[in-house]
């Protein structure tokens, strides 16, 4: 079964107005697997003309109300069917994700597929359970406050969690009645295309959900600049996120929501209730998904009195994260997404050594004979706050260990970052936990755990980690307009 799935054919054509289509100019690009360097398929290299076609299809679908005009209960049934189809095709989607971007198949199936399906199902269930408002006006007026879909939503998602990131955006956008044009990363486009196939099979009308593939400057920029796109939702680097906001302003002042980078601090106090658990969480969270997570706790702050004991325990766990072929069921750390990202990560490792940090684990490319992109789990000790590896998002399996003296010192160092996505606090002192959590400038603060999560809570960050929130009911705010209808009442009574 596994060998069959690894050789399965992939359709790299875009999906516009319910049909799989080549790019209008016929251009293609190779989709290369980071597992072994082989070409999985060729993918449509869409450009501005293809974006125009996809947006026109989405606009027509929105204007004739083939989706937004359905009763909420009808949209709910379709979205739940969509989620069910993801689960039914879970093995195929998981292997596609693994071959396309290198994550272990056990996590692609157990985390990515399940999370994406759960997200779509949750927003489907929410469609007919949200109520509008009536304002407390005088008896001479009736003021209705209603939510309406914003219209055509452009979605640009990254390569690290292709299914989950897509689901976080398309689910509330579709649930609200919008039409969507999704551009996945050129590094991992294959599962997005299958999602669109399954959406059609579930009953989402043609034109409502379109997928265009290609490179950022050729396909992403035209989508962000498009005058007939009402909202752009983006997850990716802070550098590109800033460009998205500029393009939104340069065009039609479309709403722009950006979930961006992170350099999340993980703070372990000497009174941590379970040091072994803290070590396991710190190591497991930074090396999960090969460190290619915006919320990875890449800055580990350990109170100076327990640093050596913590580090000893951490180093003992590192061999368990040795990179291996991610298509094998026992693999826990796979390949980086491509050669470019691997070289970037290795460059940061070299920078850490040059700036004087102490390399205590990993730091090398491995499995070179496979043709894949594998880097050892890496830990630097003696990291200073001004070092490059402590300040910039690496997006790889690299952990920087720093120390602090007390709570004030920990907060000061943790907040000394342009990012503010997530943070962790480990302490037995309830007052300290609340005080530090309140002082940290981050969208999510984990206490005595790291990365526990649920669709019911919002995800997003402070500062240059972005604008807006994914997940939870708060996500509906991004894809709807708030309308007030004020009705004068001249009562005859």
Write the layout of secondary structure elements.
Blueprint: H1 2-6, E1 14-16, E2 19-21, E3 28-32, E4 39-44, H2 48-63, H3 72-88, H4 90-101, H5 105-126, E5 133-134, E6 141-149, E7 152-156, H6 162-175, E8 179-183, H7 190-202, E9 209-211, H8 216-225, E10 231-235, H9 238-250, E11 255-259, E12 265-268, H10 275-287, E13 299-303, H11 307-317, H12 339-354, E14 358-361, E15 365-366, E16 374-375, E17 378-381, H13 388-391, E18 398-404, H14 407-415, E19 419-420, E20 422-426, H15 430-439, E21 444-447, E22 462-463, E23 466-467, E24 480-488
Helix pairs in contact: 2-8, 3-5, 3-7, 4-5, 5-6, 10-11
Polypeptide structure, described:
There is one protein chain. The protein is an alpha/beta fold. It is 38% helix and 21% strand. The strands form seven sheets. Strands 14-17-18-13-12-20-21 form a seven-stranded mixed sheet, sandwiched between helices. Strands 9-8-7-10-11-23 form a six-stranded mixed sheet, with helices on both faces. A hairpin with a 6-residue loop joins β3 (28-32) and β4 (39-44). The radius of gyration is 23 Å and the shape is globular. The termini are far apart. 52% of the residues are buried. The model has no long low-confidence stretch (mean pLDDT 97).
């Amino acid at each position: 079964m596994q060998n069959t799935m690894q050789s399965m054919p992939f359709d790299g054509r875009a999906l516009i107005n319910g049909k799989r289509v080549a790019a209008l100019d016929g251009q293609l690009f190779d989709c290369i697997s980071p597992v072994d360097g082989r070409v999985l398929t060729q993918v449509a290299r869409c450009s501005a003309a293809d974006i125009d076609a996809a947006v026109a299809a989405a606009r027509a679908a929105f204007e004739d109300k083939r989706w937004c005009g359905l009763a909420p209960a009808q949209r709910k049934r379709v979205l739940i069917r969509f989620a069910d189809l993801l689960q039914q095709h879970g093995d195929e989607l998981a292997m596609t994700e693994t071959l396309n971007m290198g994550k272990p198949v056990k996590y692609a199936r157990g985390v990515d597929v399940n999370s994406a399906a759960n997200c779509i199902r949750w927003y489907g269930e929410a469609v007919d359970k949200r109520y509008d408002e009536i304002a407390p006006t005088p008896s001479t007026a009736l003021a209705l406050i209603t939510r309406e879909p914003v219209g055509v939503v452009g979605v640009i998602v990254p390569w690290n969690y292709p299914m989950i990131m897509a689901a976080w955006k398309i689910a509330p956008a579709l649930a609200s009645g919008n039409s969507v044009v999704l551009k996945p990363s050129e590094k991992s486009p294959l599962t997005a295309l299958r999602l669109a196939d399954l959406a059609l099979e579930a009953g989402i009308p043609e034109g409502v959900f379109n997928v265009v593939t290609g490179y950022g400057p050729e396909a992403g920029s035209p989508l962000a600049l498009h005058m007939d796109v009402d909202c752009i939702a983006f997850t990716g680097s802070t550098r590109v996120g800033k460009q998205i906001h500029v393009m939104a302003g340069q065009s039609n002042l479309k709403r722009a929501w950006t979930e961006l980078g992170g350099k999340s601090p993980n703070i372990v106090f000497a009174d941590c209730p379970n040091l072994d658990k803290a070590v396991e969480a710190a190591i497991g969270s930074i090396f999960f998904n090969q460190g290619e997570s915006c919320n990875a706790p890449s800055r580990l702050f350990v109170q100076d009195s327990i640093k050596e004991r913590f580090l000893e325990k951490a180093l003992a766990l590192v061999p368990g994260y040795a990179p291996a072929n991610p298509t094998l069921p026992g693999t826990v750390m796979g390949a980086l997404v491509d050669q470019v990202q691997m070289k970037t990560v290795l460059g940061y490792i070299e920078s850490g050594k040059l700036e004087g940090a102490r390399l205590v684990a990993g730091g090398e490319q491995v499995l070179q004979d496979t043709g894949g992109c594998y880097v050892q789990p890496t830990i630097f000790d003696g990291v200073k706050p001004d070092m490059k590896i402590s300040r910039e998002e690496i997006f790889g399996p690299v952990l920087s260990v720093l120390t602090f003296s007390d709570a004030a010192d920990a907060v000061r160092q943790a907040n000394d970052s342009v990012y503010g996505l997530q943070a962790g606090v480990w302490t037995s002192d309830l007052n300290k936990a609340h005080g530090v959590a309140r002082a940290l400038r981050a969208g999510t603060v984990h206490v005595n755990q790291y990365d526990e999560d649920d669709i019911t809570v919002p995800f997003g960050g402070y500062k240059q980690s972005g604008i807006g929130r994914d997940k939870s009911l708060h996500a509906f705010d991004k894809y709807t307009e708030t309308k007030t209808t004020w009705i004068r009442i001249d009562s005859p009574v």
